[in-house]
Amino acid sequence: MLHNPTRFKPSPIEKDFEENDEELEFYDFNEPEPGSPPGTLIIDEDASIPNIFLIDYNADEAIGVQLSTPEDCIPYLDSQSVSWLDVQGLGSEDVLKRLGKVFNLHELVLEDIVNIPQRPKVESFADQELIILHMVTSRDDGRGFYDEQVSLILGKNYILTVQEEPENDVFEPIRQRIHRNRGVIRSQKADYLTYALIDAIVDGFFPVLEDYGERLEDLQDEVVENPTRQTLDKIHKIKRELLLLRRAIWPQRDAINALIREESPLIDRQVQIFLRDCYDHTVQVIDMVETYRELAANLMDIYLSSLSNSTNEIMRFLTVISTVFIPLTFISGVYGMNFDTDIPGNMPELKMPLGYYFFWCVILAVSGGLLFYFWKKGWLFSPK
Amino acid sequence: MLHNPTRFKPSPIEKDFEENDEELEFYDFNEPEPGSPPGTLIIDEDASIPNIFLIDYNADEAIGVQLSTPEDCIPYLDSQSVSWLDVQGLGSEDVLKRLGKVFNLHELVLEDIVNIPQRPKVESFADQELIILHMVTSRDDGRGFYDEQVSLILGKNYILTVQEEPENDVFEPIRQRIHRNRGVIRSQKADYLTYALIDAIVDGFFPVLEDYGERLEDLQDEVVENPTRQTLDKIHKIKRELLLLRRAIWPQRDAINALIREESPLIDRQVQIFLRDCYDHTVQVIDMVETYRELAANLMDIYLSSLSNSTNEIMRFLTVISTVFIPLTFISGVYGMNFDTDIPGNMPELKMPLGYYFFWCVILAVSGGLLFYFWKKGWLFSPK
Amino acid sequence: MLHNPTRFKPSPIEKDFEENDEELEFYDFNEPEPGSPPGTLIIDEDASIPNIFLIDYNADEAIGVQLSTPEDCIPYLDSQSVSWLDVQGLGSEDVLKRLGKVFNLHELVLEDIVNIPQRPKVESFADQELIILHMVTSRDDGRGFYDEQVSLILGKNYILTVQEEPENDVFEPIRQRIHRNRGVIRSQKADYLTYALIDAIVDGFFPVLEDYGERLEDLQDEVVENPTRQTLDKIHKIKRELLLLRRAIWPQRDAINALIREESPLIDRQVQIFLRDCYDHTVQVIDMVETYRELAANLMDIYLSSLSNSTNEIMRFLTVISTVFIPLTFISGVYGMNFDTDIPGNMPELKMPLGYYFFWCVILAVSGGLLFYFWKKGWLFSPK
Amino acid sequence: MLHNPTRFKPSPIEKDFEENDEELEFYDFNEPEPGSPPGTLIIDEDASIPNIFLIDYNADEAIGVQLSTPEDCIPYLDSQSVSWLDVQGLGSEDVLKRLGKVFNLHELVLEDIVNIPQRPKVESFADQELIILHMVTSRDDGRGFYDEQVSLILGKNYILTVQEEPENDVFEPIRQRIHRNRGVIRSQKADYLTYALIDAIVDGFFPVLEDYGERLEDLQDEVVENPTRQTLDKIHKIKRELLLLRRAIWPQRDAINALIREESPLIDRQVQIFLRDCYDHTVQVIDMVETYRELAANLMDIYLSSLSNSTNEIMRFLTVISTVFIPLTFISGVYGMNFDTDIPGNMPELKMPLGYYFFWCVILAVSGGLLFYFWKKGWLFSPK
Amino acid sequence: MLHNPTRFKPSPIEKDFEENDEELEFYDFNEPEPGSPPGTLIIDEDASIPNIFLIDYNADEAIGVQLSTPEDCIPYLDSQSVSWLDVQGLGSEDVLKRLGKVFNLHELVLEDIVNIPQRPKVESFADQELIILHMVTSRDDGRGFYDEQVSLILGKNYILTVQEEPENDVFEPIRQRIHRNRGVIRSQKADYLTYALIDAIVDGFFPVLEDYGERLEDLQDEVVENPTRQTLDKIHKIKRELLLLRRAIWPQRDAINALIREESPLIDRQVQIFLRDCYDHTVQVIDMVETYRELAANLMDIYLSSLSNSTNEIMRFLTVISTVFIPLTFISGVYGMNFDTDIPGNMPELKMPLGYYFFWCVILAVSGGLLFYFWKKGWLFSPK
Predict the structure, then answer these.
(1) Looking at CA atoms only, how far is residue B32 from chain A in angstroms?
(2) How many domains does chain A have?
């Protein structure tokens, strides 16, 4: 049926995500000027040119092609097989508008797809379901994660997915399952594919969380044993990133819940049972994010306590040394005075035999007494 | 149809917003004396004299005039075209009361419009919808924002908006869309215009939030690298301002939600779909405000930790220097004593050959030992 | 119709509210012994003897009399005009019990009126509505507020109000509006009067809040510029008082909401629209109380940070001075030693020409080096 | 009808509540081994042997007897009069099981009664209502309170109450009201008695709260004026005890609310109005507990601030004294050096006339300058 | 009927739980790769090989056998008696898949059972109820607890339980009750057995909580009397573990509540009354966990306060010693100066008779004055 099968998903172009990139997630958003008419699309100048991939399958065969224009998919949409159009990149207003026309998208839907980031949500239209989710993927350097908006438009026998970037998606195993006909996916409808995609997105949070689990465990040792300024930075960074994760996953729960409860002709009751499983996983992710956030908050408390502990210890050391030697210095100072010893009664100690030995005895007695006092108070040895 | 087309929105008179102005937002409110009859209007003496602008349009033509009295708009209201009366300034009780008569406003509605600030809300009356919202605009100096109450009264084929001030509104692009007939706005009813205005107000929060995002990012660097008293002030200021933003946006969500759910003859179902988009944006704004508030709270924690860190470092330095030199000073003090060296056994070191070199050896040994001890404890070099 | 018109509301007897009075608001309550039968009245021995004022009006005339016994009002109650009986003071069990009989109050209602303080609430009875609210008034000295329970019993054509004290009420303007026939109040029923009284009570929170706004603003400057122990006390005091305000206003919201939603024959639908306005004001008061509470909590944080900052600065100063002079003192101590300079090699510096100048050079070099080090670390000048 | 009237409630045997007893409230609970069959009773070996008191009354007469076995009450239960069986003590499995048989209790009900503590709750059975509440009573030494579970089983014309201990109950006034026929209690049914008992239990929280109010007030003075380690202990103790109170009262609210809403043939609508009053009091208790908890949390903050303040003050003192004297000591050290004054240029000051006076002038100038500097910085006098 | 009765539950093989094991509970989870088809089972390589035990009983007889393959249980399932198949260990994909086939489990159910940990939940299927709970058991060394997922599948006359591990279950008493025919369990259906198992799991939290109660009590003494770094670690550890407990018990409440409310043909109304008791216990466990969490948070506060207190005390000590001796040292330094006493007016004190005694008088006066000052300030004796 299809004549141009290409490999599934091209090797992603190595794009450079700068180090400080993740800072921007909190602050960057593409909103049109206040007062713009609805449907105004904001194209970020750094955005990638969209790649368009089509996978079309039925129980018997499956094929994947890279399309050059959105209109190329029209013949596939008209067939009875399931068509999955995957658009990767938001860098061309023209392509996106033509896409909107091909799929007959409401102007607000197109705006939601393009003007990232949107809150995850589900909206029902006459013959389409719009599902906006956030997909996270671990960074290779283990420092943070990429957060990408994925919009799914589910129609009668097609599904359109729009990703922000060509890199870092979690859909490859699903492409393989379709391609190699593993499991039941090939014999199911578009709603099952939707479930599979949502499931992949939700399960994609787990590896990211595992990274954070390890980082928290490392930090915990560091914060107790050797807290430095870097530790503070790291805790703060983790807290910020967990805040981002939280913002991505919480509304996802409501969105998936809406999908389960909805009476939509597009989603089969059988598939809703599968979606209930996605929902459970989402709740589990939320549980873990909240737990990690609490652990990170605890780390902050321990950091402060460790610092106070350290200051206390330093002060104790200073106090012991100072208060032992300050009286001694005074005593030696006394015998360094130049009172005229020829005048009787003036500093007789200086002329006494054994005066010097007597001086050392006083020194030892005073310092010994003080050290004993400190030892009793528990200041001498810092508790390990 | 209209004979006196003036330019849309006159250039705002440069009014001086004093530096400390924003402090007052928490504490200033125009409430009548307790026990006053309902409908008592409080005119702030600093309030601007109302300017009245009328825009009247249908699919074919649009015209904008500045009116001198509220009654001038009556002929426009009676026509079939959509009339938008925009009143800017609350400084004249007479004008406002006549306005109330022209539009047949309930005395409580007039009170809500004039006695600012009110909480955002929606109230339905027989043939009118009262919508009270807060409009925020960035200050030019990037320090904070202006918060202005906008009251919208939606009627059959008119909309009345009342703003606090003639400056700083976000409606200019909408005036332009009407004037230049961009988009579908000219062919729609007053409810669509209402949506457009609400949309502009909600989207107006985004540029303000972007400012705060940048300020938070700057502050974050400052708080880790070089926390000073100013940093504390800045964090506190941002927290206060975010509190204000929060107070402005939270009830807005409920108000817009009420508009969506209401079965009003004045608002078309089609327009409610657009309002759902406004609602999503409002939720997004709330999300961001809450996120920023949490980030600001984190900054406060980091500030305190940085301070403790700094105190700890200073103490460590003092301790190292003090505890190294205090014993040395004692030793030198001992050999400055004036014990009579002619008495045998009294300070024999002073007469020993090489006594002086021996003294320096002791000094070096003691200080070396202490420094080694500090180095092992990690006190010598402050962790960077 | 009435023969003894007296002046409206007698000048309040100057009663002395002691300074520490407000402390007690948290802890004082008149509860009967556990196990007492319902309806047991607790008369506080300090309570004022009740004054009873009656205002009776219709559209044509209004009159105010001070009654000596509760039974004196019976003829007025039987007439068609609206009767407002205002009882001020809870100091006589006899009077209150007779009042209960005249108005046919349930024993629990009488208990709620007398055994102050009660939580604000609304309870419906066959032909009466019991409304318990808290009325706050600013103290003249600007330090805190008075909190007084007001019980309103609304009947067919009468309203009974019971106040704790004869002083400090917010009803005077309403008495004037009735007396001088301002607004529509004279032509309305008892339910409108009820609205007017509730409105006055709710609006009475605004001046009190304004006081707190000013105090918070003053405190904010103080806490940043010159935090002392008094500042801590003041913050704590404001937090306590806002806690009291909060406790007074929160349940008020529920009570007024109940009044709006209730289908009561005693309250007209038209009046419920006015009550909706009261409700909005109550929510606004709650908003402000919560905002002020958050601001006060912020002040506490800033106070602590300022203290840490101050300690840090002091430590830095001590460290600079100590670590500069301690080595110098050691050096001068060395040359104060009494090693026998006749023995060759013993302290040759003492006999060197220019030895003394050399000594000062060393001193200057050491102290200069240290000061340069401190300057580079930024410890020399405290950041302003 | 009854032949053995004894005095109402025997004088409680003085049992020794150890000092550390209250610590255990958090941790002690009688739960059967996991996996035990339902209805397994756990008898604490320290529990008191049950005393069984019966009060039986109607409008005409009332009588109180101490029973030796549970079965003794059967004739009373069969009569038309109201029977109140009060069992005090949980120390005998045999008695409790026979009690269960006499009253035909579900095995889970008996378990709930005996295996203390349970959460307050209400459960309906065919012809019985089970009400489990917590009764608190002040300790005589004013340190904390006793918390005792009371189980009420309301039947057709009887009520069974089971208390943990024979001491410290709040029911004595009710026994007196029945005995002396005060109020309407004698002419009412068992449901009114139930109300009276619940009312006594709820009102029993107020004296306990009054104690805490006083302790908080005392602590507040202490924490500002003279915070010590004991203060910390006291704050912590109050926080723990308020936590206990809170745990006792919160579920009580739900339980009483359930009683009010329930359509039970055992509870008259008229009595439900009285229970509404209990509910209000419960909410008031909750309000106060939460307020006290917040006040206690504030005290903790103030304690920490006071400590920081004190450390700051001590540091300031140390800094002033140290930095004034350290330079002076250096200067005096300089002139104690032994440079050979015969070599020209070596320490010429020592031989100058008035050198000594000049020295003192320098000393005065340096210390005066430093003190002036400290005075300007506000470090000299600690702000009171 | 059964021919191979073995002892109930084999003695658990002593498996070594390493010390750091519990750290992993936060971070370890068996989730399939994102994008895997539903029903993918993840077998942990450390997981135990499943042991399969069958207990089959009716009112007359009961028998327990260890089965070698899941299919061995088929004849028992077909009989009218109640069959309880207990699978302990998740180490064999083959066994688990065959188990799924025998019991006709949905692929998602099997995934939930195997891919631990799941959130506690209840799901209804046509003829099965899936109940996933968490079972906790104390560790023998009193340090923490084991947390194990138990999945219960309730069918018509059977129940299948799947545990993570062969060790540490709380079901032994129930096996004994069945074996020895104690209570009513033998005469009941599978739903009663389900209740008994859930009850055992919920009650299994109490001994664990008792351990934490004791540890908290110990810690509380430690934190006030002698706070060290270990104390901090211990508090942190308890907080982490309580967080785990909380995560295990909170969703359990919802699950059991769902069981109570559900109209399932598999669960009798009579058994739901028993489940209500489980629900109460779960709420009680939650109450206690939350209380313990709050107590642990309090401990953290006290720890910090104690540290501040200790630092304050050390500083006070240093300050007293330093400020007493520093002036003395200065004075003795003065009289150690070498001003030429032959020049008149230079240091006349040195030649005065009694000059030395005068020196000591000054020393005593200065130090006495300072000590008196400190005593008045309350710095001399640390408050105990």
Answers:
(1) 34
(2) 2
C182 within a domain of the structure (yes/no): yes
**Shortest alpha-carbon distance between residue E137 and chain D (Å):** 10
Q: What is the pLDDT of residues A145-196, one digit of tens each?
A: 889 999 999 998 999 999 998 888 899 999 999 999 988 899 999 999 999 9
Distance in angstroms (rounded) separating the CA atoms of residues E98 and D381: 84
Assigned domain for B8 exists: no
**Sheet of strand B82-88: strand arrangement:** B62-67, B51-57, B82-88, B158-163, B145-154, B128-138, B121-125
Same domain? For A271 and A237 the reply is yes
- Is the interface score ipTM higher than 0.85? no
For residues C340 and C219, state if they share a domain: no
Chain B partners within 8 Å of A307 (Cβ):
305, 308-309, 312
Residue B140 has what pLDDT?
77
Q: C76 and C56 in contact (C-beta within 8 Å)?
A: yes
- Pair (B316, B193) in one structural domain: no
Residues B38 and B104 reside in one and the same domain: yes
Calculate how close chain A gets to E159, using CA atoms only, in Å: 23
Residue D300 sits in the same domain as residue D349: no
Report the relative pairing of strands C158-163 and C82-88 from DSSP bridges.
parallel
Q: Pick the residue of E36, E130, E250, E351 with the most A CBs within 10 A to test the interface with A by mutation.
A: E36
Q: Is residue D329 part of a domain?
A: no
Q: Last residue of some domain: A245, A271, A305?
A: A305
| From E287, E305, E337, residue closest to D232, measured CB to CB | E305
Residue C237 pLDDT exceeds 70: yes
- CATH code (residue A322): 1.20.58
Residue E22's closest chain A neighbor by CA?
A: A217
Q: Using the beta-carbon criterion (under 8 Å), do A322 and B327 form an inter-chain contact?
A: no
Three-class SS of residue C109? helix
Domain boundary at B305, B327, B362, which? B305
Q: B296 and B148, same structural domain? A: yes
Asked if C134 contacts C147 with a C-beta cutoff of 8 angstroms, the reply is yes
Contact partners for chain A, using 3 or more CB pairs closer than 8 A, are B, E
Q: Do B36 and C173 touch (CB under 8 A)?
A: yes
**Alpha helices, DSSP H, located in chain B:** 74-78, 93-103, 107-114, 172-180, 190-203, 205-225, 229-261, 269-334, 355-377
pLDDT digits (tens, 9 = 90+) for C143-168: 788 899 999 999 989 999 999 988 88
Domain membership of residue B132 as a residue range: 19-305
Length of chain A: 384
Residue D12 placed within a domain: no
CATH number at residue C289: 3.30.460.20
Q: Which chains touch B (3 or more CB pairs under 8 A)?
A: A, C
Distance of alpha carbon D71 from alpha carbon D48, whole angstroms: 20
Question: Are residue E122 and residue E34 in the same domain, yes or no?
Answer: yes
Amino acid in position E364: L
Q: Which of C20, C118, C321 to mutate to test the interface with D (most CBs of D within 10 A)?
A: C321
pTM for the model stands at: 0.85
Which of A326, A331, A350, A380 best tests the E interface by mutation, with the highest count of E CBs <10 A?
A326
- One domain, residues C348 and C269: no
Q: Do C307 and D308 touch (CB under 8 A)?
A: yes
